[in-house]
Structures are given as C-alpha cells and as structure tokens.
Design a protein that fits this description.
globular; DeoC; TIM Barrel
Length: 228
Amino acid sequence: MKSEIDATLDPKTIAQTIDHTLLKPEATRADIERLLQEALHYSFYAVCIHPTWVPLAVSTLKKSPVKVATVIGFPHGATFPEVKAYETYQAVQQGADEVDMVINIGALKSGDLDLVRRELDTVIEAAKPRALVKIIIETALLTDEEKRLVTELSVEAGADFVKTSTGFAGGGATLKDVRLLKDMVGDRAKVKASGGIRDLSTALRMLDAGAARLGTSSGVAIMKELLL
C-alpha cells in the first residue's frame, strides 16, 4: 500500500482529517476511554461520541488539541426541533466543540421545509459561537435533488459542514455523493464523509473527492496502514 501513496503524504495531516468515532449503543465506559487514548496517541482531529460521554471526553482531552464532537438527534433525526436544540445546548454547555445533527429525513422527503429550516436554525443558534455544526443528511436515503436541497438549506442556515451519513441507515459515504456535496457547498462550508471508511485507500479517495473531514471507527487501522 505504501508504494501506491504519494511519498510526501504526512501521517499527521491524515490524522487531522479524522473524527475518531464510537457510536455503538452498547459502548461501555472502558470502550470510550480506549477511544480517547487512541485519539491522543494518533493526534486525531476529534473524537465523535454520544452526548452522555461528552463530560468524560472533555475531562480526558482538556490538555490536548483533540476536539470533542457529539451527535444530536442520532441516528434517525425524527424528533422535535426544540429537543434537538436543547440536546445541542446541553452538549455545548458540557464542553462539546462540535455537534453533528441528523436532519428530520421524513420531513425533508415530505416537503416540510419549514420544519427542516426550523431545526437547522434552532440547533445552529444553540451551538454558535461555541461549537461548530455539521448537518448529517443521510445521503443513502435521499435523491440527488433532495441532497442538493438540504445542502443548500444547511449552508444558508450557517452550518459549518454537511455530512453524508450516520452509518446506521444501510449506506455510507460514496465518492459520488462527496463530489456532489462539495460542488454544492464550494467554499461556503465543508464536507464530512462518514460511513464505510475502513481503510487508507478509501480515506484517501474521499479526501481527494473533496471531503475535509472523515468520520470513521477505523481510524487506528487507517493510521497503522499508513505507518507501515
């Protein structure tokens, strides 16, 4: 693998694109503690965990540059905008640096754009200016027209990132979707590719397609492959 990669590829640069992720519902405190130590060891950009683990992550990572990201309305997005806003507020109050919010997919597909706009506005208001906001649009469940629509709504509302997937909806990031989202946001926001990124080759292709951040539970495997 190393021979196929640009010789100037810097492991630190790759590590700084990775949100080291553990969102399994059965994850224990020991699992999260292991994730945090891995993030410190490899200098990943952030960890991405459920809100209940934010205080532990903040405490463990407070003397490091590793950011704490958490998820809102995860994984289905089908709750009230006010609930998502309160969840965001609580996470930020506990020290989260970034929030990844799942849109109400059913509302989008039903054409209820007022609800989608309301949840975007309330979550972004609850997060800013203390935390970045990534909007998870769940590309596997959307048409290209819907992807373009929700991406534009997200950027207009002030989102920092549009994110492809939760990884819990039967599909993850694809190169086609990353390129589509990147074409839509341009320089107005960034793209996070998430779901199904399990090796270095896939990670590099996603970055080449326009992703600025990678959400993956395989960060350690990717770094070990890179460092071979």
